[in-house]
Structures are given as C-alpha cells and as structure tokens.
Amino acid sequence: DSGVTQTPKHLITATGQRVTLRCSPRSGDLSVYWYQQSLDQGLQFLIQYYNGEERAKGNILERFSAQQFPDLHSELNLSSLELGDSALYFCASSVKGNYGYTFGSGTRLTVV
Amino acid sequence: LAKTTQPISMDSYEGQEVNITCSHNNIATNDYITWYQQFPSQGPRFIIQGYKTKVTNEVASLFIPADRKSSTLSLPRVSLSDTAVYYCLEVKTGANNLFFGTGTRLTVIP
Fold first, then answer.
1. Which residues on chain B are in Cβ contact (under 8 Å) with A4?
2. N or C terminus of chain A with fewer C-beta within 10 Å?
3. Bond prior to A25 in cis (omega within 30° of 0)
C-alpha cells in the first residue's frame, strides 16, 4: 500500500458519459498529480494541484477537469467520453513538488 | 520530445546483475536523475535518485559520471519479480510534473 488511494479500481462506461475518479493523497502530502497511461501514449501528465490550487497543466483535454478539495483529496472528471479515453489513470502525491512522488494503483477506465 | 534515451527492452537471467543505461544529453545543471519502476497495471514506484557519482540503497545503485551525460541503474542479482518497466527521468527540485519517456522493459528469465 503506497498510501495514495484511488477509487474506483475499475470503471466501465459508455461513450458520451461522464465519470469521476477520486484520489486521496498520502498523509501530509499537499501536491496531487494526475497521469493518464494508455498503450500507445505511455504515461502522460495531465494536471497538478497544490493545497487546493491548480499549479500546472499538461496534456489535459478540455473535456477533462479536476479539483482538489480542502481535505486535499482530488477528483478528476472526464466527460463526453470517447473510446480513446480508455486508459489507466494514476494519481500521485508529494510533499511539495519534490522528487519523491508516490503513485496510487490507478483506475482502469474502459469506454465501450 | 523525450529528454532521455534508454533501451526499449532488456532480458536477463535470474541471479545476474543488470545495468540499464540512460542518456542525458541535454541535462540541466539543476536537474537530478531519478529512476522509477513500474509493474504491469500498477503505478510507478520511486527507486533511486542522484546528482553525481554513486548512490546506493537497499534496492539498487545509481552511477552518474562527472559529465552527467548518462546514468546507469544497477540491479544486483535480479529475480523474476524484478520484471518491470524502468524509467529514467531528469527532475528539477520542486518541478510541477515528472516527464516519463518510454522506459526500458526488463524481462527476467528463469
């Protein structure tokens, strides 16, 4: 157990739908990062939050959004889902952008 | 554009020492070199980090020459459970994200 909790572990949904992925960071970590991993794209950085504020954006689609709540947990919202959104979505946390990122075990999203 | 270059795959027999080398042709002065390990369907796991010379922990050793243009991750006496993808990264302290390249897929053979 890495200390970073992601739910759900698996999600199957239809095209056009909207889903929410949840992440609870390791205790004491203020930064949360979201990554997408698909077979053909590898690990892609999506977005970072630090203590509730957005700090950096990567290759995140406009259909996707995220937020970090006062208790530091984060949610990644994916809408108007397409088949190509099927991937593993990882959340990671760190104390303050230091190198020691801790990753969760991911949410496997399948869009059918 | 990938910042680092590493072999796509490697095979090794159980009990052997494995060395995975990464090229850092454009590494910045304030970048650290960090290695992560990823098992199938799991998130990457931090293995080791260094700036220069040699760093060793309970899992691996990291060798970085003086010019810092390359790094070598050394795994002593690998076992089947070391089969994974290994990523080398260049990381600035306080960086807002980690850039993962394609990694090296290590397969340990019985």
1. 43
2. N
3. no
User: Chain B residue with minimal CA distance to A46?
Assistant: B97
* SS3 call for B80: helix
User: Are B14 and B108 spatial neighbours (Cβ–Cβ below 8 Å)?
Assistant: yes
C-alpha distance across the termini of chain A, in Å: 30
Sequential pLDDT tens for chain B (110 residues): 458 999 999 999 999 999 999 999 989 888 899 999 999 889 999 999 999 989 999 999 999 999 999 999 999 999 999 999 999 999 877 677 788 888 999 999 99
Residue B56: CB atoms within 10 Å: 13
* Structure token pair of residue B14: 């159980």
Tell me, what's the pLDDT at B1? 47
Beta pairing partners, B96: none
Contact B43 A45 (CB under 8 A): no
Give the pLDDT mean for A19-45: 92
Using a CB–CB cutoff of 8 Å, tell me whether A101 touches chain B: yes
β pairing state of A87-94 and A64-68: unpaired
Residues in chain A: 112
Gap between the Cα atoms of A83 and B4, Å rounded: 31
Between the CA of residue B46 and those of A18, A53, A87, A101, B89, what are the distances in Å?
A: 32, 25, 22, 7, 11
